Amino acid sequence: MPKDPSAVDDRYRSLLQKAVRRGHPELVSTLSALIENLNIHSRGWFEKRAAFIVFSECWPLGCEMLFTKRFPSKVAALIRVARARKARDATGLGLLAYALAQGETSVLNHSVGDHAVKLIAKAIRHPGDFWEWVPAQAADHRCQALIANAGRYREGGRPHDKAVVQAAAYLAVNAPLPDPTPAPAADDPFPHWVVFDRHTSEGKRALRDVARDLHIPLPQLEWCFYYFEGAAANAETPSPWWRRYCQWHFDRVGMREEEARLLWEPSRAQIADALAEDGRRLQSDIYRWKLANREKVDALKREVERFTSHIKELPRDQSLLF
């Protein structure tokens, strides 16, 4: 089936989240401006994707996610996540529950945490009941705001995206909402080759070839790529649910984290080399677009700064008017 011509390029989809995750706000701004000007459908996609990135990368910021009708409000949310320490418990719990809902009972480890995994798995199967139940559990206005934002985007994204949003809403009512903390700025340039993971045609090819050449099971190599490169963040807060998910996935592919590090060392150089030209091409494409559209990029950055500086003055019940 031919690809929808209105769809956002897989490279940009991957780059947007990884730029936020690794803490590169300047790259986030440039790519956001590029996506805004792609086609008439890209803004709608960007809003839903931005919401999911907030909940997956720093779920407590879901309570401060104020999207207006204007595009800069969504970019401002991503910039804020890029500059914060990542908190990925909603991702960990959501992915564990999604796996359980798909029949992967191995996610259960006979701990008290199994209750939450089972609850979100049930919510995945009966979302209407969950979204009717969870707002009534909100203890304060921050919790209420997060649940309201989660509810607005409960239908967006892929099935496991929805599970992460449900997990964020559950975490908000299960314990006091933690305060996000600033992250140190990223020191290193963004490595564009990491964009080409198994969700891109280039990444699939490179992973398949290296797995064959080094006699490594493909699922193990795909997981190592994701764990060591795709999921790398500039700074993180302790996230027990995220650690539990990662540990389960290591078990699922049949290796320990220590073994994975030994496997990844020789593999990384080969994959990086195989994807180097694709990475350079992507970086060049974005740089050339930025040079040709500097006014658009600078205008968006000014609007994001203006929105951020006035966000506390904007009444929440008036946000949809702007």
Salient structural properties:
single chain; 322 residues; mainly alpha; 15 helices; 64% helix; 0% strand; globular
Summarize the structure.
The chain has 322 residues and is an all-alpha fold. The protein is 64% helix and 0% strand.
Task: Describe the protein's architecture and organization.
The protein is an all-alpha fold and 322 residues long. 64% of the residues lie in helices and 0% in strands. Helix 1 packs antiparallel against helix 2, helix 4 (71-82) packs across helix 15 and helix 5 crosses helix 6 (114-125). Mean pLDDT is 93; it is low at 315-322.
Largest beta-sheet details = none
Low-confidence stretches: 315-322
Mean pLDDT: 93
Structural class: mainly alpha
What is the percent of helical residues? 55-70%
Count every beta strand, where a strand is a DSSP E run of 2 or more residues: 0
Shape: globular
Q: Treating each run of at least 4 consecutive H or I residues as one helix, how many helices? A: 15
Rg, please?
A: 20 Å
How much strand content do the residues show? under 5%
Order of helices and strands: HHHHHHHHHHHHHHH
Terminal CA distance reads 39 Å
Oligomer: single chain
Topology:
Elements (H helix, E strand, L loop, with lengths): L9 H12 L3 H12 L5 H16 L13 H12 L6 H13 L12 H12 L1 H7 L7 H12 L6 H16 L26 H14 L3 H13 L9 H14 L3 H18 L1 H17 L1 H17 L12
Helix pairs in contact: 1-2, 2-4, 2-15, 3-4, 4-15, 5-6, 5-9, 5-12, 6-7, 6-9, 8-9, 10-13, 11-12, 11-13, 14-15
